[in-house]
Design goal:
single chain; alpha/beta; Rossmann fold; 11 helices
């Protein structure tokens, strides 16, 4: 028996229950054709300013549920599944490196959205920044949760590496929901059960073709920030010394930018330090 199986069995014997959470009443979901693929999204609705939420790699739109519930009274929130995630179509080997940025543009056009606020975490923050740089007149504002601000040297994977990664993703697809929740709670107790319950299903739909993701000649944060004109908030993981100074230096390139390092937060800033995160986020939104 594997370690995670032993762990789950122990929880079951102790009386723990695992039931996948229900999407809040009144929320709807749908599909659009955008940038050549079918994109799935969830929406809170209402005649309110639009806020698009773009998740990180291997997550999906519903990983934003807890944040969306905090903001839905004031915003029509759209939680899109990136290509290869959730119920959206999988990526292909020949996808260009800016595919996800163009997916955002296609989604906005298909839904006929006017001046949406665009917010992303990790992979989603990279897509949001690239989109905002390519289409500076479209977003009302941009919010980036722990984007990469310093360039990292990455090579495109070899065919052997791709196949190994595909098999690893498939193995996780086949991991029981209960085991995923248990593993999440064990590794990230500060997230709380609700975050793990929304996080777990996304691992089962994360498509193996994401192993084909190419890095190519991706623009640096400096290049993108120089082209972004919308008010921009960066909610960054905690950092000190030289790293913090470099992050703040890159953020000064933004014409209307602000960076906040959230004390004690790791890469998943909102999950690690929800209270501090919400305080900064709501202040920024209130000033738009």
């Amino acid at each position: 028996m594997k370690r995670w199986q032993i762990f789950v069995l122990g929880l079951v014997l102790a009386g723990a229950t695992f039931a996948q959470p229900q999407v809040p009443d009144g929320w709807t979901d749908g599909f659009v054709m955008a940038n050549g693929i079918r994109i799935h999204y969830w929406r809170t609705g209402g005649d309110k300013p639009v806020l698009i939420l773009l998740h990180g790699f291997s997550d999906d739109g519903l990983c934003w549920v807890n944040l969306a519930k905090e903001l839905e009274a004031d915003y029509d929130i759209i939680m899109a599944d990136a290509r290869g995630h959730g119920l959206s179509d999988p990526p292909a080997k020949d996808d260009p490196t800016d595919a996800q940025a163009e997916d955002i543009a296609g989604l906005i056009k298909a839904l006929k959205l006017e001046k949406p606020i665009v917010m992303g975490h990790s992979m989603g923050s990279s897509s949001a920044a690239w989109f905002a740089a390519k289409y500076p007149d479209i977003p009302r504002a941009v919010i980036l949760e722990d984007p990469g601000l310093t360039r990292r040297s990455r090579k495109d994977p070899s065919p052997e590496q791709e196949e190994k990664k595909r098999l690893q993703i498939l193995q996780r697809n086949n991991t029981p929901y209960e085991a995923l929740v248990a593993d999440c709670l064990k590794k990230n107790p500060q997230w709380g059960r609700s975050e793990c319950e929304w996080w777990a299903p996304s691992k089962r739909t994360y498509h193996p073709n994401n192993a084909y993701r190419k890095w190519g000649a991706r623009p640096s944060a400096e290049e993108l920030f120089a082209k972004i004109t919308a008010p921009t908030l960066i909610l960054k993981a905690d950092a000190q010394g030289e790293v913090r100074a470099k992050n703040e230096e890159v953020a000064t390139i933004l014409k209307k930018g602000k960076i906040v390092h959230v004390e004690g937060a790791g890469h998943c800033v909102r999950r690690d330090r929800e209270e501090q995160y919400l305080k900064v986020l709501k202040k920024f939104l209130g000033e738009l």
